[in-house]
From TrEMBL:
It comes from Sphingobacterium hungaricum. InterPro entries: Amidohydro_3 (IPR013108), HutI (IPR005920), Metal-dep_hydrolase_composite (IPR011059), Metal_Hydrolase (IPR032466). GO terms for biological process: L-histidine catabolic process to glutamate and formamide. The keyword Hydrolase applies. One of its GO terms (cellular component) is cytoplasm. Residues 123-386 form the Amidohydrolase domain. This is Imidazolonepropionase. It holds the Pfam family Amidohydro_3. Its EC number is 3.5.2.7. SUPFAM superfamilies: Composite domain of metallo-dependent hydrolases, Metallo-dependent hydrolases. The gene is hutI. Pathway: Amino-acid degradation.
Length: 416
């Protein structure tokens, strides 16, 4: 058995302890330990408290001391619970066309849109795709993100979806980031499929879902419910089958038209993501449910669309996670902290709400109960910013980067 490690003292240690999964949060609710310390062993947090108390308690025991000097704010490593970082190519031309006034249809007709990413992703070998996933995951790691959800959905055939999910698994073995794979075979009806949307979803349900289980590729199923993708009627039997097989569900919901969030509530999905056009009825239904709403400000910034009504969701009593949606079409930036901080200024979110949205509430969106807080029994996944107050983290809108990142008790990033 490894010896204990004691790390500290941190000017401020934000544990996120005691904060509820749902509802609005005030900064005064944050559990902040001044001159705090963390004791961990075998990658798991053993104790959290005032550094000098922990030093006295562990004096004489086998303990490795990691001393922190200077200003330091420690908090749980961030979690990005919605990304599409498994993609080939670029959609810079779509971005230019859209900003020059072209419509969705005109962009598609010019060879852009999701279909162009499908072609550029299919053109990569599984090994090449793995490489780009690892590269992007490591960029997120630099931002203090230790857990990243990654969707398939640019394969859109049985073989290509499986290639994507196998590449995600191989990437997971090649990066320090924990990659949580989600099957998004129901992203859009592929142009080269001969048959109806129902036929396509039946094929995916019958041919892909069983292999996800047998090869342990993913336990999460996502669907894009939208006029340009699949209708809530289309998705019923697909989700019913997935649920019967034991998959967790998540939905791309209410991005341009409503109906997706109702499906998320109906199927008790882990999360409903996007929600830019959710109205009072959708917000109320989400607030009554245990579905985690996920705001994707990167998509709003990429498309020039309104933000998810984060304030209204929280005030109605819903939860709120925030994710980057990093993808080549609508959210090419891939900077979670910048996006979450910008969302806060437009939606009037407290620091506690922003930080909860990228820590334990994002963990809940992924069905993970072992991370997102700094407390006994949780993974020793934490980050350190060289600054005297946690307020600087959102104030500097992503310009302040963590100087340390610890993943399961191992130092991954360590800057002087
Ligand atoms: Zn997405």
């Amino acid at each position: 058995m490894e010896s204990y490690t004691l790390i500290g003292p941190f000017t401020q240690l934000l544990t996120m302890k005691g904060l509820p999964i749902k509802g609005a949060l005030k900064d005064k609710q944050l559990d902040i330990i001044s001159n705090g310390g963390i004791v961990f062993r075998n990658g798991i947090i053993e104790q959290v408290g005032v550094f000098s108390d922990l030093s006295a308690q562990f004096l004489g025991k086998q303990v490795e001391l990691m001393l922190i000097s200077g200003d330091a704010v420690c908090l749980p490593a961030f979690i990005d619970c919605h990304t599409h970082i498994a993609f080939g190519g670029s959609r810079a031309n779509d971005f230019a066309l859209r900003n020059a006034g072209s419509s969705y249809l005109e962009i598609a007709n010019a060879g852009g849109g999701i279909w162009s990413t499908v072609q550029q992703t299919r053109a990569l070998s599984q090994e090449q795709l793995k490489e780009v996933i690892v590269e992007r995951a490591n960029e997120l790691l630099e931002q203090g993100i230790a857990t990243v959800e990654v969707k398939s959905g640019y394969g859109l055939s049985v073989a290509e979806e499986l290639k994507m999910l196998r590449a995600i698994r191989e990437a997971n073995d090649a990066t320090e980031v924990d990659l949580i794979a989600t099957c998004l075979a129901a992203h859009t009806l592929p142009k080269d499929f001969e048959g109806s949307a129902a036929d396509y979803l039946d094929l995916m349900a019958n041919e892909v879902l069983p292999i996800l289980i047998s090869e342990k590729l993913s336990n999460r199923i996502d669907a894009f419910i939208e006029q340009s993708a699949f209708s809530s009627e289309n998705i019923q039997s697909y989700f019913a089958k997935a649920k019967e097989l034991g998959f967790d569900l998540t939905v791309h919901a209410d991005q341009f038209t409503t109906s997706g969030s109702a499906v998320a509530v109906q199927f008790e999905a882990r999360s409903a993501d996007h929600l830019e056009v959710s109205g009072e009825a959708e917000i109320e239904a989400l607030a009554k449910s245990d579905v985690i709403p996920v705001a994707l400000p990167g998509a709003s910034l990429g498309l020039g669309c309104p933000f998810t009504p984060a304030r209204k969701l929280l005030d109605a009593g819903a939860s709120l996670a925030i994710a980057s949606d990093w993808n080549p079409g609508s959210a090419p930036m891939g900077k979670l902290l910048t996006q979450a901080s910008v969302l806060a200024t437009f939606e009037k979110l407290s620091n506690a709400e922003v930080l909860a949205g990228i820590t334990f509430r994002a963990a809940a969106a992924l069905g993970l109960s072992d991370r997102g807080r700094i407390q006994k029994g949780y993974l020793a996944d934490f980050i350190v910013f060289a600054t005297p107050t946690y307020q600087d983290i959102t104030y500097l809108q992503g310009a302040l980067q963590p100087t340390q990142l610890w993943k399961k008790g191992t130092s991954i990033i360590q800057q002087a």
